[in-house]
Amino acid sequence: MEIQGKINNYWSKRANEFSECRLKDLEGFQRKIWIDIISEAVPEGKGLRALDLGTGAGFYAFLLADLGFEVTAVDYSQNMIDNAVKNSEKLGYTDIKFIKMDAQNLEFQNESFNFIISRNVTWTLLDPKRAYEEWCRVLVPGGKIMNFDANYGQGFKLAEEAGQNYKEMQNWSRSTYSRAVQSEELIRQRNDFAKQLYICDIVRPQWDVDILLQNGISKITIDTEISSRVYVDIQGNEEGNSDKKSSKRKFGSDSNLFMVYGIKES
């Protein structure tokens, strides 16, 4: 099987448990965490169009709809799209467009969206540079892009080389973020394709910034401490203390989450 097929097969197999986790996040404290983070960056105005790239179960699409956007959400996995549609029907989101589409080859006209968000997508792509070019192409001048990712592929590659076992790869700290335990077979599949992607050997997020600058994105902000806002300590939240946050930590072989945010030049 070619590498693109392996990537799609992996995410399609994870679609159901992934959906369950994101629904739990929507019901819990993660909704407020992400609403707060996104609200700091969204453009002002009415009738704004947002694109959720790699929507998965629809988590960010639902939040963007709550923030008043006209939302389009895409994913390469049909299983993910099917679950996102089911979740939207269950939760009463009737106006979101869910489309099966390749994030590296978007089927939208130039300057179609005011805001673009993505999470944990770029590290899975055969050509993330091409993806960034496409994302910037469909963004309107003055539009904003927000990407969350990590050096996951690099982390998985190093874990394999170090002989890290299955239990160690699943050694996550407790937090408000819902994470599903993957089978050892799925983890091996993930590591196999991840180490073949060129992005796993790149220094990030500096690389992301360079590519965005080349594609007309300016006023770029990098947050390499965003994990401290996302992976919040459970006990701290149960006590109602939103300031009690986790320190830097690694979840199995995962690298720390970062955010890259920028504005397209007018």
Automatic annotation (TrEMBL):
GO terms for biological process: methylation. Its EC number is 2.1.1.-. Keywords: Methyltransferase, Transferase. GO terms for molecular function: methyltransferase activity. InterPro entries: Methyltranfer_dom, SAM-dependent_MTases_sf. SUPFAM superfamilies: S-adenosyl-L-methionine-dependent methyltransferases. Residues 46-174 form the Methyltransferase domain. It comes from the Bacteria. This is Putative methyltransferase YcgJ. The gene is ycgJ_4.
